[in-house]
Amino acid sequence: MPWPHGILLFLVTVIGMEAFAYAAHRWVMHGPGWFLHASHHSRRSGTWELNDLYAAIFAVPSVVLLLGGLQWGWWPGFIWIGWGIAAYGAIYFGFHDIIVHQRIPTRYLPRSAYMRRIVQAHRLHHVVETREGNVSFGFLLAPRPEHLKAELRRRGRQGVRAPTAGQALAEK
């Protein structure tokens, strides 16, 4: 496969993964897969949570496509698609686990309007501890935080985590 076509397929895959991640997060993780994802909406004790199994589950198609394209004689485009899925996984890990949830300590502070927006949108998603009533299911694209806050108010703050003592003081 010519490099330009492969790179285009790679980029389309990375972009398409955002749509897939949105759908999986909204209708699988907050649906029948809540038994794993609930751990991610609760306070974590320790390094790992049940939700981390989703990383392994979502890595399987990438590995299979890479093996198929590289070792099993499948269509060469599958290599680029497999790398696109893996690249999205790496972007997700960097954004979600390192920047937002600080599972690896860092001093990074979002300065750009885009980064502040997606970090705040993801944090607003996490103020809801329950399966229903959440807002903002995407990872790289997110509605404006003002819209998300208005939606949470419209829903009567259903399932919203009670603020900790420090948060309650900061809001006053």
List descriptors.
172 residues, mainly alpha, 7 helices, disordered C terminus
Mean pLDDT: 88
Coarse shape: globular
* DSSP strand content: under 5%
Beta strand count: 0
Residue share in helices?
A: 55-70%
Alpha carbon gyration radius: 18 Å
The description of the largest β-sheet is: none
Q: How do the helices and strands follow one another from N- to C-terminus?
A: HHHHHHH
SS-based structural class?
A: mainly alpha
The unreliable regions are 165-172
Count of individual helical segments:
7
Describe the structure.
It contains seven helices and no strands. The protein is an all-alpha fold and 172 residues long. It has helices at 3-29, 34-37, 53-70, 77-100, 113-126, 145-154, 165-171. Helix 1 packs across helix 4 (77-100) and helix 3 packs antiparallel against helix 4 (77-100). The radius of gyration is 18 Å and the shape is globular. The termini are far apart.
What is the structure about, briefly put?
The protein is mostly helical and 172 residues long.
How are the elements arranged and paired?
Layout lengths: L2 H27 L4 H4 L15 H18 L6 H24 L12 H14 L18 H10 L10 H7 L1
Helix pairs in contact: 1-4, 3-4
